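Lecture notes, part 5. Sequence design as translation. It can be helpful to think of inverse folding as translation between two languages: the language of shapes and the language of residues. The source text, in structure tokens, appears below.
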């Protein structure tokens, strides 16, 4: 079985590195790269062709929603899951409008992310927004 190839996008270096380390510790996962803003996420998606992009929302240069919209237009096969500290339906709605494949609140991220990984690695199931 091929590893699930993930691009991690977040402007906070400590969070991004911590998340990447966590993902690398999971079986069936390959972190292919990291990006610090939306523009870099779009560029690295083209360059690295990840299966899944874990995308922060609030970043300099280009928001995660805008980057997600571009990635989904250019690479519809790439799954994008929004990671955000924002809670509430307005943020989930914005994720749906950007064509994200999922939305995970950072305060419950560990459990939901573990479930998402298990679903994608073992069964190919997408998480609902």
């Amino acid at each position: 079985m091929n590893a699930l190839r993930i691009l991690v996008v977040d402007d906070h270096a400590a969070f991004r590195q911590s998340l990447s380390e966590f993902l690398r510790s999971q079986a069936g996962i390959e972190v292919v790269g990291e990006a610090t803003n939306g523009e870099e996420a779009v560029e690295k998606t083209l360059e690295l062709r990840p299966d899944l992009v874990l995308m922060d929302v609030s970043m300099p240069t280009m928001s995660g929603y805008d980057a997600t919209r571009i990635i989904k237009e250019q690479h519809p096969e790439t799954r994008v899951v929004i990671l955000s500290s924002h809670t509430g339906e307005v943020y989930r709605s914005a994720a749906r409008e950007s064509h994200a494949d999922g939305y995970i609140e950072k305060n419950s991220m560990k459990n939901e992310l573990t479930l998402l990984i298990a679903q994608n690695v073992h069964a190919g199931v997408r998480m609902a927004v």
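The translated text above is only one of many valid answers, since several sequences can fold into similar shapes. The beta strands are 4-9, 29-35, 52-56, 79-84, 102-105.
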